[in-house]
Amino acid sequence: MTPFGLLDWSDLVFAGFLRDPSVNEAVASAAGAFAVLGAVAALVVLTVKGWWRPLWSGWLTSLDHKRIGIMYVVLGLVMFARAIAEASVMRAQQMAALGEPGFLSAEHFGQLFTTHGTIMIFFVAMPLLTGIINFVMPLQIGARDVTFPLVNAVSLALTAAGAALLMVSLVVGRFSTGGWSGYPPFTGAAFSPGEGVDYWIWAVTLSSLGSTLTGMNFAVTIYKERCPGMHLFRMPLFTWTALCTSILMIFAMAPLTVATLMLALDRYAGFHFFTAGSGGDMMNYANLFWLFGHPEVYILILPAFGVWSEVFSTFSGKTLYGYTSLVIATMCIAVLSFTVWLHHFFTMGQAASINAVFGVATMLIGVPTGVKVYDWLLTMVRGRIRFRVPLILGCYFLATFVIGGLTGVLLANPTVDYGTHNSLFLVAHFHNMLIPGLLFGMFAAIHFWFPKAFGFRLHEGLGVLSAFLWMGGFLCAFMPLYALGLMGGMRRMAQLPEGPFGPLLAVALLGALMIAAGFAVFVLQLWWSVRHRDRLAVPHGDPWDGRTLEWALPAPPPEWNFAVLPEVDRRDPFDAAKLAGIAYALPDRYEDIEMPANSAVAPALGAAAFAVAFGLVWHIWWLVAFGLAAALAAIVARSFVTETTRTIPAAHVRQVTEGWRSIARVATPCPRRAEATGANRGRARPQQ
Amino acid sequence: MSDVTATRHPGLNLNHTDRETHDRAESVMFGFWVFMMSDLVLFAVLFATYAAQSVHGIAGGPAPAEIFELKSTLWQTLVLLTSSFTMGLAALALKYRDDRRRLVLWLLVTAALGGTFLYLEGADWLRMARDHGAVPQVSGFLSIFYALTGTHFLHVSAAMVWIGVMLVQIGRFGLKPEVKLRVMRLAILWHLLDVVWIGIFTFVFLFGVVQ
Amino acid sequence: MRLIPCLPVLLAASLAGPAVAETGTQAGFLWAAGPIAEAQRAHFLSIIGWMSVVIVPLFVALPVVLWRYRAGGPGAFRPDWGNSPLGEAVLWGVPALLVAVLGWNLWTETLRMDPYAPLGPDPLVIDVVTWNWGFVFVHGAAGVAEVDRLTIPAGRPVTLRMTSDSVMQSVFIPRLAGQLYAMPGMVTELNLAADGPGTFTGRNSQYNGPGFATQSFDVIALPAGEYDARIAQLAAMEGTLDAAGFDALKGDDAARPQGFGAVSDGFLAEIVGRYADPRMAGMVH
């Protein structure tokens, strides 16, 4: 064996094309080339512009929760681009493959649906929501940072290492074909030899370790770092959902880690956890995976529920309807989410009464969810609704989410599930929940809080255009799948039989392309808005007539967030302060502020984790040992660092704070009808 | 001063410091408890898997009762329990006496007992492998047996490394609040591993022999 | 009850109906051809009907609210309105009642539609073994087997006893029976019946590698007399299906026989025994 383990030149994706110049290999090579060129382009830009130093000292080593949050979101968006491309290729293949093999090999198709699912869950949805919570939650509770800023950076580094592993798999070797859920024994060594499943195992494991740490960090932050007066029942609803999601992360990620590590032991060391025979139990994997997987669904959706709560309230200019109801409903969902995992395998042959228990438990989740939908509707009642991008997406979410809820209740019935399990009906259902629910929620959040993060709004017209492309695209891409599923179309099929499927598949392909176009317009919108940021600037920090503490800060907020920790005596404190005319009052006195100092430990751990994972995939044992030693050394060395904070002098805090407030106080308040124009500089005229 | 008393962390002696240090300690200790909770979920999942595969996963290989030897396991248990006691003495030395030597002594005793435990457990594994051919590749039961006890073994090993680092830090930094907090968290981890071992002893070894 | 589901039926039918009519065999349980699929269809439609209690009001109210309370619209502005006891009661009460009803239906239907419960006295027992990528069906009583094709007598209850000789698979006959996993080392049972003669598609629905997309079989329901003729036809075929013959069948995709005239005793148990704990394998007979 060479020093590079199983790795060989022939594992490069381009070598595959040279061996067999088919369309199938051309697609793989093009994807690999795209990844390489993208990386090279990024390096060139960083070098030419001289951005390496600011990138390193301003971002990669920063422990500022806001910057870490933004990096999470960037990671999520980059991976989203790849996942959309994969979805479009898969639909194109199915269109080309009615009753014939099509242009992709079945093996390649298997890799595509596996990476698409893995990326969307672990490297798009999770980074997006983690990033948004990271940025927003400490601001909403009046804190200066999370409790463990370094752990926060380490979580990001581990997630990024997992994402990097997935990107490398485009160029070196092949990925798993076992789907995002990776069921053995198919993913065991006997049926899936080679590096593919190993790539999947280590990418997912890194991500789940990062998420476990994130969950703990957020939960402790919300419990311990709230500003004076911020009782639990005064927290904004987004923070409540962040809390519930964090608790779910703490409890739910461990079963996934155990499941993937057991699968790794099966594959690497010949253990028999999930093998067929020798006392392996493949059904145990299904239980462990979904013991994680079902709470995971709510880890994904709850923060989006929080975003929708903020959006409906803010863009109706009105307090949230049924705050207590919404909190209780969120908690109910979080608790119930641990009691329903078996509904992912009603068809595994257990007793009917067991299925019935889990079916009823599943339907129970419909109650709090239904309450939420109507609470949001009633939030708009007696308001003054403004149709900004987040609210447009929100209304679309309400309408489509209930359809997803209906199909969810259908699938909760074992009787119906026997006829729809593993079908495109199921695929349509979870995309129906996750696209309008989670993804649109995250894009609403990006539109909503982008001005807070960067100091300028996103261009409104392009935002509306991309929103409509997404909304139309979703309908075209997934409503036909409901019908296809009921017609007997299964998921994960590289080719469908000839016959009735063609027209509906064509609509689905069109939908996928529309979603891709919507994303392109979104990127264009970002580019345009950055170019014209002066016109869109909202330096006073409150572009949407916000209600919670984050809007009381300039945009972008200073590193320390709050010059003086706020004291609150009610919900929506900033709205009340604006109505009382004391929103921009100056603090009496300033103090020195201690903030966490930069640290290179997180990028070092991320690099070490990547080295370990890559070494494990290719059996390069020296690299594994080196990575583990480096990680241990970094952790121990960090514990000997005594200067972990730096002090920001009171004079500086004073200068920055008064510089901003003295201008904001005298700025002309913007009426809501001019919200989407250049007149909006971030000082809102309160609505009476 | 009364302010400080109100928020003082009960397990620690940080009384010469200001309120912020106590608040900070509170968050750090709470965070560590949450971390331990997540770790317990990991063990819970392993226990659940053991419950299934120790019955259904024997697959013609040796059964629990054939390979377990309670004498060795009992010694392991006694050693680990004693180490928990000495770790408790270390924590008391940390809290009630500003006495570095006593703290270091008890930490050393704990580490020695921990090392003994690891040796005994390793020897027990070797015995099973040698006398019964009971290696993890034989059956689902043995896979989860080694995974469960091995995970505990790795935890104890990591805690041993931690003890080593703390001994160096006590020497280098003295009993700074940060060092005290780290020793305190180390103690929590150590006791928790003891609790998990009680679970393993009862659930794996005693039940296994009874069957 | 039967009136409410009209709307979704129309919706589903308008989406898929014309297309399905062209082919017939490729379809789901909405085009039921047996008692199980018929019950699934009825249950499916009744849930849609009940759920419309909470869904329809939203679709009506959403546009009304958006119109009435738009900025500059006619609705009164009351920014502090955030609670109403009656509203809360309705918001929690209606879904709770609805879930109570649906939960009751779920419970009774799930127990009634237990895939392990035979659909009548004296079901025809057929053993199914799946592999990557195919199916063999053993007509135990007649001692014959057929490959990638399942012939059943129309109208008679059938019990499939299923196992897998590869990975986890899911045997799915949408228009007759729904699906259940077939797993190595284990036996699961799926009961079904066809109302009348016809040809229906069955397939594996659990991804198991490159041959997954085309791993399907035809289910052919025949009148009793024709069924016997088919069995006689199978009995006249060469070859005995035993473990060795089965492995040869698995290995040669190009020249798959259509059937076997004889089957070794305990064939299913032998395949299960390849993976099962020896003490558990004895339970399959």
From TrEMBL, chain A:
Q: Name one GO biological process term.
A: respiratory electron transport chain
Q: Where are the transmembrane segments?
A: 26-48, 68-85, 119-137, 149-172, 199-223, 235-265, 285-308, 320-342, 354-377, 389-412, 424-450, 462-484, 504-528, 597-614, 620-641
Where in this chain does the record put each Cytochrome oxidase subunit I profile domain?
50-569
Q: What is this protein called?
A: Cytochrome o ubiquinol oxidase subunit 1
Q: Which organism is it from?
A: Wenxinia saemankumensis
Q: Where does this protein reside within or beyond the cell?
A: Cell membrane
Alphabetically, the GO molecular function entries are: cytochrome bo3 ubiquinol oxidase activity; cytochrome-c oxidase activity; heme binding; metal ion binding
Main localisation, per the record? Answer: membrane
SUPFAM superfamilies recorded: Cytochrome c oxidase subunit I-like (SSF81442)
Give the CC-aspect GO terms: plasma membrane
TrEMBL record, chain B:
Q: Which UniProt keywords apply?
A: Cell membrane, Membrane, Transmembrane, Transmembrane helix
A molecular function (GO) term: cytochrome-c oxidase activity
Q: Which GO terms describe its biological process?
A: aerobic electron transport chain
Which Pfam families does the annotation name? Answer: COX3 (PF00510)
Compartment(s) of residence: Cell membrane
| Source organism, top-level taxon | Bacteria
**How does it sit in the bilayer?**
Multi-pass membrane protein
Q: Which PANTHER family match?
A: CYTOCHROME BO(3) UBIQUINOL OXIDASE SUBUNIT 3 (PTHR11403:SF2), CYTOCHROME C OXIDASE SUBUNIT III (PTHR11403)
Protein role: Cytochrome bo(3) ubiquinol terminal oxidase is the component of the aerobic respiratory chain of E.coli that predominates when cells are grown at high aeration. Has proton pump activity across the membrane in addition to electron transfer, pumping 2 protons/electron.
Q: How does it assemble?
A: Heterooctamer of two A chains, two B chains, two C chains and two D chains.
Protein's UniProt name:
Cytochrome bo(3) ubiquinol oxidase subunit 3
Annotated organism of origin: Wenxinia saemankumensis
From TrEMBL, chain C:
Q: Is Protein transport there in the keyword field?
A: no
- Where does the signal peptide begin and end? 1-21
Tell me yes or no: is Transmembrane helix among this UniProt entry's keywords. Answer: yes
Q: What is its main location?
A: membrane
The record ties this protein, via SUPFAM superfamilies, to: Cupredoxins, Cytochrome c oxidase subunit II-like, transmembrane region
What sections of the protein cross the membrane?
45-69, 89-107
Lipid bilayer topology:
Multi-pass membrane protein
- One GO process term, biological-process aspect: ATP synthesis coupled electron transport
Query: What are the GO cellular component annotations?
Result: membrane
Instruction: Cite the InterPro entries for this sequence.
Output: CcO_II, CcO_II-like_C, Cupredoxin, Cyt_c_oxidase_su2_TM_sf
Q: Sorted alphabetically, which keywords does the UniProt record give?
A: Electron transport, Membrane, Signal, Transmembrane, Transmembrane helix, Transport
What is the top-level taxon of the source organism? Bacteria
GO: which molecular function terms? copper ion binding; cytochrome-c oxidase activity
Q: Where is the Cytochrome oxidase subunit II copper A binding domain?
A: 121-233
Q: Where in the cell is it found?
A: Membrane
Give the family from UniProt.
Answer: Belongs to the cytochrome c oxidase subunit 2 family.
Name of the protein in its database record: Cytochrome bo3 quinol oxidase subunit 2
